[in-house]
């Protein structure tokens, strides 16, 4: 069954994927309202509500009914400054956002995780992503879609050296490890938002590329 979400809550709209997804949402004629809290102001749009400030302050103040929530929050340990700061964003803030979205009536959450996410992984990054997935599953969402993209390909305002070096190589790797264009990921997430499917669905990068074509 296909749905037409009208009221949308979006976290991470100023990031690479979130920016592309926000543009897509605001150009969808069925979408009447996008509520996108952020630390810095976003470009104004008649269908965009953009509360600005510290997430710890802004999240509890969000108001209104929403149909679906997208979570594009994410950073790197280098950008965050420490493992603790990384955990605070990629685990704690994601879980807090999802909890608030559920309180506002959202029945479907689409969240960006990472390829290789595993709560028992010896790799810190993958372990935190796996813990985040488990925490969201425990919230009891009627519909939870976890997307696990491989290396994101796109132009960032603040380029990441590792991505710049690995990007060309990732285009040559087959299967789910093949790099994915951020515009493809945004399109795939919107297509997934239109599908009604109870329970948890994990979508790996190769399927995301097909959905985003």
Automatic annotation (TrEMBL):
Gene Ontology molecular function terms on file: NAD binding; oxidoreductase activity, acting on the aldehyde or oxo group of donors, NAD or NADP as acceptor
InterPro entries linked:
NAD(P)-bd_dom, NAD(P)-bd_dom_sf, Semialdehyde_DH_NAD-bd
What residues does the Semialdehyde dehydrogenase NAD-binding domain cover?
A: 7-106
Q: Where are the transmembrane segments?
A: none
Q: What is this protein called?
A: Oxidoreductase
Q: Write down the species.
A: Pseudomonas veronii
């Amino acid at each position: 069954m296909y749905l037409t979400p009208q009221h949308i809550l979006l976290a991470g709209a100023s990031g690479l994927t979130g920016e592309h997804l926000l543009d897509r949402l605001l150009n969808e004629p069925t979408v009447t309202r996008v509520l996108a809290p952020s630390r810095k102001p976003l470009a104004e749009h008649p269908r965009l509500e953009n509360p600005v400030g510290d997430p710890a302050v802004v999240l509890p103040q969000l108001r209104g009914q929403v149909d679906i929530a997208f979570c594009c929050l994410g950073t790197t340990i280098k950008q965050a400054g420490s493992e603790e700061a990384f955990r605070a964003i990629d685990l704690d803030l994601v879980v807090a956002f999802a909890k608030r979205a559920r309180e506002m009536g959202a029945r479907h959450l689409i969240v960006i995780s990472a390829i290789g996410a595993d709560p028992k992984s010896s790799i810190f990054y993958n372990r935190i992503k796996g813990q985040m997935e488990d925490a969201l599953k425990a919230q009891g969402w009627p519909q939870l879609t976890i997307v696990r993209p491989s290396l994101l390909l796109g132009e960032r305002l603040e380029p990441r050296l590792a991505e710049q070096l690995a990007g060309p190589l990732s285009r040559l790797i087959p299967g789910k490890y093949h790099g994915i264009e951020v515009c493809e990921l945004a399109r795939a997430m919107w297509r997934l938002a239109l599908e009604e499917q109870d329970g948890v669905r994990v979508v790996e990068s190769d399927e995301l590329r097909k959905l985003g074509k």
